[in-house]
Amino acid sequence: MCGIVGYVGSKEALGVLINGLRRLEYRGYDSSGVAVMTADGISVRKAAGKVQALQSLVERDGLPPAATCGIAHTRWATHGAPTQANAHPHLDDSGNFAVVHNGIIENYELLRNRLRQAGHHFASETDSEVIAHLVASFHDGDFATAAGEALRQLQGTFGVVLACAHEPDKLIVARRGSPIVIGIGENEVLVASDVAAIVAHTRRVIYLEDNDIAILSAGSCDIRDLSNVPVDRQMLEVDWDLGAIEKGGCAHYMLKEIQEQPEALHNAIRGRLDHDLGTARLDGLGMTPVELAQVDRMVIAACGTSMHAGMVGEYYFEDLAHLVTEVDQAAEFRYRNPILNPRTLVLVISQSGETADTLAALREAKLKGSHVAALVNVVGSTIAREAGRGIYLHAGPEIGVASTKAFTCQVAVLLMLALKLARSHRMTRDQGAELAAEIERLPEYTRLVLEQAPAIESIAGDLAKARSCFFLGRGLLYPVALEGALKLKEISYIHAEGYHAAELKHGPIALLDKDVPVIALANDLPGKEKMLGNIQECCARRSPIILTATDGDRSCEALTDKIIRIPRSHPLLTPVTTAIALQLLAYHVARARGCEIDQPRNLAKSVTVE
Ligand code: M6R
After folding, report:
1. N or C: which end of the chain has fewer CB within 10 A?
2. Residue 234 CB coordination number (10 Å)
């Protein structure tokens, strides 16, 4: 969603800001803007569309080159269309106060009406503009005092950076519900909504907490709470470098991230399997053996791809640990008053650690007194910090909007967690050791799937011509069918539905004909015979068939010649290997259709509004 960058230091701010915006492009946006501050005032340029349009505008019109302080923004439209006028930064009437804002100001109409009555004029349809006017209305000589007063009036969510023409070497930053990270460099301070915009300059960062306000200048970062009391926030070192967020010779981030999966899985698993005890070491979980043994129910809350990983986890927890498990769409979780108790372990799963609905589910679970843990990829993210306990994925930064390596690492971590819980309940040491040895082989199996890429690319050609298709799965591969359909639709814009294979004849089969391909997950797993029957039903309606099948299994060859081979492995590993094949399929279909794979239309990498 929206992205923020701010800079105050000794370098020319404009270049730092535009490069920072480019690092945020992956998050999804529809317009952008930049403002720089000099002794002569604030200069703003904004453009609808891509950052490239902003850059061209800046090159054409110029901006004060000597400015060493500025703010910039990529906007994902909520209030008002994606136009130049609605792009950030926004100014007050005097042009002396500028704001960039992520989040939603819920009381903006009330504030705007009040300000209008006091003579303010508004230039945009956004909720954000009201912040600049509000700061101006409180300004009586001191920027920080006015900013604090204005921020206290706001209801809703914000990550915000404010600038003032009267104090052009200072930025004021605050957060409530939208992430803000501050980068501390040599005689320079950066601020952003995502560390990707900062890491080219410094890896020393501070994450703001809700209701923190920071006053930034080139050599200082003074953090206070909303009541102006100084607060101490820990400085962290980002453990990856610029290379991790560059394409490394691949055409797209998505392809790079698909190909990184053997290494990402290796990192997710490394040091976490105890082969002697036949269990997993997941220290971040912070639960004693007694607490683990007392867990009698699992609840998983997540969105999108992370929810599909949770659905795979449901099979693991029930099968291995014999724990009743329920998977909730996180947006639904808190509104249906879930039944939780101190024996329930609630797991929230999120790649970004910033998804608003998942965060709300976490807060609800904490309030109801159950055990809570988070499976998160982004270190230091809001969900990771608020959960306090959990397991990092260690998948490395995921830039492509379509989640790939995060999904497979989530599944691998869920399997290790199920192993740990199973050993706390009924699983024997030998059974545990056997499964641990299989999990260790996961990176090797994923390499074998990646070798299928050329075959998958050739199958993708026909699918790319379809307008609509179905993904069918059963058992462990049912959530993978849902994930395969999600992947295809989000990056190729082909309408794709994921269904349980048995459910097809309860309605959707009415849609099948020669123009509606079916991608069926027919791996050699329990239930395969029934799946083959379901595929026959699709063949009878003349649907073109694409299959995933276990390497060496010839039982499905009569049904189609479009078969993607999945290596034979422990059945519990097949959601990972099969999902990778479907990621490649979606990627090559989208590529054949000439789609913008890394930044699909209307989508954002992390969804920070409900
Ligand atoms: O960061 P999260 O895992 O919480 O994000 C959840 C979903 O928004 C995300 O998985 C989304 O569905 C992806 N675009 C799927 O590729």
Report:
1. C
2. 8
Q: What is the pLDDT of residues 15-31, one digit of tens each?
A: 999 999 999 988 778 89
- Ligand 1 center from residue 605 Cα (angstroms): 7
What's the confidence (pLDDT) of residue 389?
A: 92
The pLDDT score that the predictor gives to residue 91 is 98
Can you tell me the distance from the alpha carbon of 433 to that of 500, in angstroms, rounded to the nearest whole number? 32
Confidence of residue 246 (pLDDT cuts 50, 70, 90): confident
* pLDDT the model gives residue 337: 87
pLDDT at residue 367 greater than cutoff 90: yes
Mean pLDDT, rounded, of the chain: 94
Rg of the chain over all Cα atoms, to the nearest angstrom: 25
> Could you tell me the CA-to-CA distances from 239 to 195, 202, 284 in Å, in that order?
11, 11, 17
Indicate which residue of 2, 164, 538, 595 is catalytic: 2
Give yes or no for residue 242 having a pLDDT over 90: no
Half-sphere exposure of 503 (CA within 13 A, CB side): 13
495-539 confidence digits (pLDDT tens): 999 999 999 989 999 999 999 999 999 999 998 999 999 999 999
Quote the DSSP letter at residue 598: S
| Cβ–Cβ < 8 Å for 403, 484 | no
Set 50, 170, 528, 605: catalytic member:
605
**What is the distance in A from the centroid of ligand 1 to the CA of 305?**
5
Burial 312-349 (b: 16+ CB within 10 A, else e): bbbbbbebbbebebbbbbbbebbeeebebeeebbbbbb
Q: Is 170 a catalytic residue?
A: no
Which atom of ligand 1 is found nearest the CA of 406? 3
CA of 605, closest atom in ligand 1? 14
DSSP assignment string, 84-129: TTTSSPEE-TTS-EEEEEES-BTTHHHHHHHHHHTT----SS-STH
Closest alpha carbon to 214 in 174, 273, 262: 174
- Please state the pTM of the whole predicted model: 0.83
Tell me which residue of 102, 16, 55 sits closest to 605, measured CA to CA. Answer: 102
Whole-number Cα distances in Å, 572 to 188, 450, 550: 50, 19, 13
* CA gap 36, 19 in Å, rounded: 14
C-alpha of residue 403 to centroid of ligand 1, in Å: 6
Structure tokens at 599: 């930044």
